[in-house]
Amino acid sequence: MIQAPKGTKDCLPQDSYKFQYIETIMRKHAALAGYREIRTPVFEHTELFLRGVGDTTDIVQKEMYTFLDKGGRSITLKPEGTAGAVRALIEGKLYAQAQPVKMYYINNPIFRYENPQHGRLREHHQFGLECFGAKEASADAEIISVLLHMLEEIGLDNLTVSINSIGCPVCRPKYHENLKEYLRENIEHLCINCKERFDKNPLRVLDCKIDSCKRLVKDAPVILDSLCEDCSTHFEQLKKLLVIAKVKFQINSRIVRGLDYYTKTVFEIIMHGHREGLALCGGGRYDGLVEQLDGPSLSGVGFGIGIERILMELENRGIDLPEPELFQIFVANIDKSSFAAAFELTLKLRESGFKAECDHVGRNLRAQFKYANKLGAGIMVIVGGEELERGNVKIRDMQSGSELELPVENAINKIMQMLKG
Predict the structure, then answer these.
(1) Same domain, residue pair 150 and 71
(2) Domain check: are 25 and 110 in the same one?
(3) How many contiguous H segments (helices) and E segments (strands) does the chain have?
(4) Could you tell me if residue 96 is inside a domain?
(5) What's the total number of domains in the chain?
């Protein structure tokens, strides 16, 4: 039997409403803050991610789906959303617009070749905000606030924000040297990956999940002690603005995030309860990324969150999302001779804005009643027999069982009255 590829998952019709419910809330909160949707290709030139994401990251080294197309060009399926958004910003000359340029992506397919496990898929879908041209900490505080309000409306409360600053090209090199000096004494105790990171990007050692590395960096120098005046001022302003926004936050000097393009602010949304301390999502500032990809000098800040990750956390908390009404009305035909009239009435009801259905498989009237109940239709319209010869139909309230007969041309107005209650 042909099966879905490993690490992918179908979203079946009976479950798609969950995605739609979440996406509706996401769009609403993005729009309230002035963010507009951007849609970028599902694949890009590999060079974009090598230069943008960074060749020292796990994503580039281990997780990208990269292949040669028929023209011999190296193509990569999108492993994250920001690099593509920056490429579109530059190519579309959006930097020439009034700043900041605010954009969001939604239902954005992301591909990473990693070992599939609970909560991790090789294809998942992300929502993200990207803000370009706003260098002030207010932009950082804004996206964190938008994210928390969005998650709260979806049903995920009791979340905490962990924040850190990882400096900038001015102050980070000095910290790198301090960190390398500390790590050099115990370099033999680092894992294989961190030994490779030691020279290329020692900051990533702080993010390692291997126990031996976690123990080793416990007493490592803190980057917050090495910030330049600009980064320190920015971080202090962020903290003040988060207090104004009534965002609960804590400082975690070990957050560095897994992508090389971050500067200054990095943050994670932390869960509590039985998933204490785990990050639901994260983001931060990337002030040099646009320029790094041959665009103008333009600051940036944003985040990405997996929609499947949100659904999993809702399930863990036992939270059910409201299931939409599939059909309001079922139009039944008494026999084959009355099906055309039932079909015509169904179409008229839909044109009037009602969710209406009729029988497409040749059920008898009794079976149509059962099917209408299964669909959850609140009203049943019965077409055929002597009533139809008189130009009438029967309308049945499925909850009370009451019926009335009236002319076909009056049926839609009556149904409207019944649905309004």
Answers:
(1) yes
(2) yes
(3) 15, 16
(4) yes
(5) 2
Identify the residue whose tokens are 């207010």: 138
Where among 256, 290, 316 does a domain terminate? 316
- Shared domain for 244 and 290, answered yes or no, is yes
The secondary structure of residue 248, as a DSSP letter, is: -
What is the value of pTM for the model shown?
0.91
Q: Are residues 384 and 302 in the same domain?
A: no
Q: What is the DSSP string of 67-119?
A: EE-TTS-EEEE-S-SHHHHHHHHHHTTGGGSSSPEEEEEEEEEEE-----BTT
Specify if 344 maps to a domain.
yes
Q: How many CA atoms lie within 13 Å of 140's alpha carbon, on the beta-carbon side?
A: 32
- The reply to whether 212 falls in a domain is no
Reply yes or no: is the peptide bond before residue 100 cis, omega within 30 of 0.
yes
CATH of the domain at 376: 3.40.50.800
Torsion angle of C-alpha atoms 19, 152, 103, 130, degrees rounded to 10 = -110
- If asked whether residues 273 and 342 sit together in one domain, one would say no
Position 322 in a domain: no
Angle between helices 16-32 and 307-316 (to 10 degrees): 110
Per-residue confidence in pLDDT tens, the chain, 421 aa: 899 999 999 999 999 999 999 999 999 999 999 999 999 999 999 999 999 887 767 788 789 999 999 999 999 999 999 999 999 999 999 999 999 999 999 999 999 998 776 667 999 999 999 999 999 999 999 999 999 999 999 999 989 999 999 999 999 999 989 999 998 888 888 888 888 888 878 888 888 888 888 888 888 999 999 999 999 999 999 999 999 999 999 999 988 876 778 899 999 999 887 677 788 999 999 999 999 999 999 999 999 999 999 999 999 999 999 999 999 999 999 999 999 999 999 999 999 999 999 999 999 999 999 999 999 999 999 999 999 999 999 999 999 999 999 999 999 999 999 988 6
Domain of residue 143: give its range: 16-171+227-316
Question: What's the gap between Cα 4 and its chain centre?
Answer: 22
Token pair in block for residue 131? 């803000």
Distance, in Å, from the CA atom of 235 to the CA atom of 253, rounded to the nearest integer, reads 12
Say which CATH number the domain at 65 has.
Answer: 3.30.930.10
